[in-house]
Structure formats: C-alpha cells, structure tokens
Amino acid sequence: MTQLVDDPVKASRGGWIFSQTNRDPLGSTDLRELYDKLSPGFTGRCTAPLLVDLKTRKIVSNESSDIVRMLNSVHMGKINSKERIELYPSELAKTIDETNAWVYELLNNGVYRCGFSTSQGAYDRASADVRQGLQKCEEILSKQPFLCGERFTESDLMLLPTVLRFDGAYSPLFKAGGVHVRLRDYPALFAWLQRCWDMDGVRDTIDLADATSSYYRQLFPLNAGGIIPTPITPEDIGLSS
Question: May I ask which residue range the UniProt record assigns to the signal sequence (predicted)?
C-alpha cells in the first residue's frame, strides 16, 4: 500500500503525488503519470484511492466502496477468526446496503452538494439533506453503538471520513447543514466517533489537519483569498486520546 500526498503545487498535473519516502512501485511521480502508464489515453479525472494489479499493470478499481469490499474479502481469508473485523457480514448485507445508500446521498455526497451549489435552492436542498442525515445518525446511534447494530461495519467506515472532516471543512467552508452546525450538537454521533477513534489503528491512518486544510488550499472558488485557517486537531473536535 502506497500513501499519496495531496500537494497541488508540486504535482505536475493534479494534486496527488508520491513522496520521496513512499515511492510508487511503478516509478511514477504523481497520480496522473500512473494513470497514463496503466491506462494510456485516459482523459477523465485521476482520483484516489486507486487499486492496481502490479503483476498485470492494470487498474482494478478507483471506486472506494468497491475497493473496501475487495480488500475486506482478501483480509477475511488471510487472518484468524479472533482478529477479524468483517465489514460486510452476510447476515447484515441488506441493512448495510440500505444504510450505505442514505449515508452517501445525505452526507458523503450531501456535503459536496452544499459546497458546490450554484443556486440558493440547490444549496438549501443539500443543506437540509445534511441535517437530515446527521439527525438520522443521531437517532440510530442513540439506540445502538454502530450504524448497523452492535458491530463496526462497512457503513461506519463509509461515514467516518465525512464526520471527521465536518467541523474543520464541511461546516465552515462548504456551509454544510449551516455554518452553525457542529458535531457536538449530536452527542450520540459524537460518542460513536470517539468509539471509532479508539479502535486499534484508526487514528494512525488519519492526518486530520491535512485532510481538512487541503480543501482550503485547493478549492479557489470557495476560498478565493487562499487563507488556510489554523488546522483543526482531534482535540479541537473534542476527541480524547
């Protein structure tokens, strides 16, 4: 697994680059170069994450939900039962699929619909969706520890990045749900976030300051002055270590 760096200044044709300490196994300097190598003539957006078959030198998928499910399948076949976290258990498949649908529409995509609305009506509808999504999470998580019951599943993983970035970027910059809305307005949702944060390995994979400040660096139409606010920290959100 190779971690990309979000750096629009250094990247030749896009924001994602490979750092000197975490090089691309195929020798690319940025994500566009990797796409050019693996899919010559591709003219679409070069997005991450990207799952690549190094043996065949072909792109497997750049759809995060598909990649999560593929990696979960491989992961489940290689570790013993005591260490497993099954993200998509068969007995919860229907519930997970239904939950994923509204999490994406109301929150994952809802925050972006707020930020990139080009009319007041479009923004109002998107902002209402975000508030509906947050309230729905609050109601569910006031009755159970995770979105689909007693265990962490794919749905929780799908929600986690949006919630983590909410106070630092989506609320103040995208005006998602209204600039006054904060995670602490939803105590059950915040308690869920703390539970996720306390899981082994979770905080080690997240650079919250970079994940939020990159929006201010890159989205000129939304931040024309280019001022990057003091990066938010887990402690600013209220997460305890």
Answer: none
